Amino acid sequence: ETPEAQPQPETPSTPQREGLPEVRTRGPFGRLMERNFLQFASYSICDRALPTAEDGLKPVQRRILHAMWEKDDGRFSKVAGVVGNAMHYHPHGDAAIKDAIVTLANKRYLIQGQGNFGNILTGDEAAAGRYIECRLTKLAREQLFSPKVTEYVPSYDGRNKEPVLLPAKLPLCLMLGVDGIAVGLSTAVLPHNFVELLEAEIAILQKKPCPALQPDFLTGGVMDASEYDDGRGSVRIRARIEERKGEKNKLYITSVPWGVTTGRLAESIEKAIKTKKLPIRHIDDFTAEKVEVELSLTPGSDAEKVRKALYAFTECERKVASRIVVLRDNRPCEMTVSEVLACH
């Protein structure tokens, strides 16, 4: 016997993916997963991955700075101790907090480090938190905190109060540069020059046109910013490669593109050598405080052709995209550099 035909649900106005039932016909487990995913996505976007337009900080950075300010006496403190204080406000693992402290310290504006904080040029990692120390810089101490005009909310366990935003006069998002990946969107804000940002803010306050700003990188290099488009495009960055008098068949790399370490650069050069794209017989990395990579060429090689090949086939040249996605009024939005400055 053939079973009786079951009544079919009405055709939805929005086409459903094949094999995926409508929301109203899903079981309790399907509805639970949908609700939990939306909550996770909202949390990841608003409370973890994106900086705010108002103070330019991610939640973990704001909580670290607040925890350091509460215990600040002008002296250095163990990073492990700072991590413990920050965990009173940040409901995540200690490793993530320590990494954020190291990143802020290596950018030099807000946290001063003492000890081995790694090397952004070589990619060497920082020492364990119990061996290194940090403290707030004078800039951070004087410009980021003002309890009289700061709104506070209870921390995640209700035992403490944390700031909703720090009343920063500095455009920290553009100063520091930010990378973040949330659910369905990401942000990539490139760092800018401190003095140029302040001059632009002064111009906006004086009702003058905002000057066109370009990124500025700690690692140096040569930059083509013709496609930057006020933070909506990209920049192309090259390492500096030079010849030196009295040194035959040798080239020297004295800076690396932003986001590239000398170790990663050497790997890309070795790969190009194996594929017969570069006539280089030896690589020596003497990088410490400054980039110093020595390339020994095969006899009879044309140094200028090798330089062009390095830019074409290795990490000596890379394109860096900029997409400024920030939280404004607790909602994600995409902005330009001049819009962030005007809003700030």
Description:
By secondary structure, the protein is an alpha+beta fold. The protein has ten helices and 16 strands. A four-stranded antiparallel β-sheet has the order 10-11-13-12, covered by helices on one side.
> What structural class results from the helix and strand content?
alpha+beta
Number of strands: 16
The geometry reads as globular
N-to-C span: 73 Å
Beta percentage is 15-25%
Q: Helical content, roughly?
A: 25-40%
Query: Main sheet, how many strands, which sense, barrel?
Result: 4 strands, antiparallel
- The secondary-structure element order is HHEHHEEHEEHEEHEEEEHEEHEEEH
Q: How much is the radius of gyration in Å?
A: 25 Å
- Low-confidence region ranges: 5-14
With strands numbered from the N-terminus, the spatial order across the biggest sheet is: 10-11-13-12
Q: TL;DR?
A:
With 344 residues, the chain is an alpha+beta fold. The chain has helices at 28-49, 59-70, 79-86, 94-107, 138-143, 172-176, 194-205, 262-274, 303-313, 337-343; strands at residues 77-78, 111-114, 133-136, 152-154, 161-163, 178-181, 186-189, 222-224, 234-238, 241-242, 250-253, 280-285, 293-297, 317-321, 324-328, 331-335.
